[in-house]
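Replying to the earlier thread about multi-chain prediction with a worked example.

Input:
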Amino acid sequence: MDAGVRAREVTRSFGAVRALDGLDVTVPYGAVTALVGANGAGKTTLMLILATLLAPDSGSVEVGGHDALRDPVAARASLGWMPDVFGVYDMLTAEEYLVFFAEAYGLPKAEGVSRAHELLQRMGLAEWARRPVHVLSRGQKQRLGLARALVHRPKVLILDEPSSGLDLKSRVELRGLLRSLAADDGAAVLLSSHVMSELEIADRVVLIDGGRTRGEWDAAELLSGRRVPWLVRALDDQALAVALDRAGVPHSSASGAADVRIGPLTEEEAAGVLSGLVEAGVRVVSYTPAGGVLESAVLAAGAEDEPDEHGLVVDGAWRREEI
Amino acid sequence: MAGVRGIGLVARQELRTRVRARRWRLLLGVWFGLVGLLTFALWAAYDGGYSDRDLGVAVYGTLLLLVLLLVLLLAPALASQSVNGERERGTLALLQLTGLTPGEIAAGKLVAAWGTGLVALGLTLPFLAWPVLTGAVRPVTALVSVLVTALLMGVVCALALCFSAVAARGVASALASYLTVFGMLIGTVICYGVYFGLTAPSEGSGASEDESRGWWLLAPHPFVVLADAAPETPPRPVCGYTTLPPTPEHPQGERVRICPEEEPAFDLLGELRETIRELRAEDVDYVVSDTDHGTHRYTYQENASGPVWPYGLAVNLALGAGAFAITVKRLRLPVKHLAEGTRLA
Ligand SMILES: Nc1ncnc2c1ncn2[C@@H]1O[C@H](COP(=O)(O)OP(=O)(O)O)[C@@H](O)[C@H]1O
Ligand SMILES: [Mg+2]
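Result:
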């Protein structure tokens, strides 16, 4: 398999703390891989090593087909990295910020400007191009950071806690962008999170704890055959409730703008219910598995290690990691 | 090696942030006002005692040393948080991951800091120019002295930049930078004094005392470098000691302090230069001969000892170059050792 990142047996200690203890991770092209683990599991350390910022004590790291330890310059050219804090030059506008980094990556000025506009457009920041960076909201900054990481068209994207601190809307936007980067551009995307409910972004999940890989799953595989609640929204709540009752699907009452919670259902059953609703003429606007699907699956799969006792956030709330 | 494009890119970025920050413009404004005020005060203080020409010399010498002092105090503010400030902002690692080399990043930051300092130095030129325009100070003197001031400022910028790359916190590197400047200005003098005292031959040992010992400790002092490097502002005798020819009362010859008949202008640069060269040479500067009128005539002579500034300037430039090399080294990736609690981004 052609992979954007291949790390083997990576170890790294900080004094007495063994942050990485023989960790393996592979990030394939065309997919979003989520690195999941509690605070202190070693996610940031791994990402610093993948980004050629930090030297591992031992192990091998390949990024974009280059040996990141022997030829870090080549590896760097094919990698985009977004740290868990947004680095900002306060005095620059969003456009200047991107053009500066484009030029730093060796793009000629004119090309840098057009690349900046293209990215601002794609990230939905076009109207903020001339605004100073520090007035942007957190979600906008995060997308600007993503644009910055993409400025030199890297094939590999490494994002440390990209949705930390974002509200739901920004998270959904970010998820859409990352999915499109993997699916449309064929990038190898690795993101980390200590918040399990964000896992819906991922095609693959790698669970790490204590600096070691504890498990690796295909997200679809994790979901298949598992009964979880689904969230439905339709234009007409009344029609939806009637149709669900008729089909005998248990559901919460529709109240105002909130989603109706149905199930639990397997993916197969959910697909059947959806086609039934459509046939009955219910105009469905959205239909997704409820948060917590992957999290319960991962926890079940990695149960022997009980990662949540180390502070893995399972309930969809997020908390700022201490750094 | 570092490319001009990369250096320019980093420097432009730094300068752009500075130009837009109100405090930098404010700082330069205050600077201009301060130097103007100093100049005015000097003219007022020296006025009355001297001819126009001498007044120019007096003001120029004193003002230049004050400008050097201010420049040395300004330089740490320009560079001492260049690297760790960027690290704290979270942009350093982003910069390091681009195609820019450590040399380009370091040089770009040095150029930006030094460049800002040169702008500040440039703002003092109108005040320094007057004595040159009136002919009191030779243009070559002015040129060399401003050049040396600029170089010394670059050295302090490089040192401060190095501290900013070594220390994790901006406060620490700023403090270290200022301590270094004080070390250059006061530490060298203290070291000289201590060395001179410690190496004095014990009393009654009969060993002749080498008065010139330790001069090299003073040579790197910025004031000494500046004063000694600047070509003389028309040669003029200054006060000094000499030994008179033997007389019956004084068979060894009397040691006297002599001054030219006409009190010369207070030429601070000249005085400093004489002092350091005398220190080094242990020579008497005045050749004494009898005149027809039974009085002595003192002829001022070029000091026998050579200039001191090449040593001093070389020491300073070597310090700056070493500091720059360390800065580049600290910007290399990947980082191997990470101090507890240090962040990379
Ligand atoms: N610079 C450092 N100095 C000392 N210990 C560190 C440093 N960076 C990380 N660690 C330790 O390494 C472990 C892994 O940290 P990290 O990679 O930041 O975890 P995560 O990102 O998964 O929360 C933690 O125990 C942390 O305390
Ligand atoms: Mg982390």
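The mean pLDDT of chain A is 85.

Feel free to reuse this layout for your own posts.
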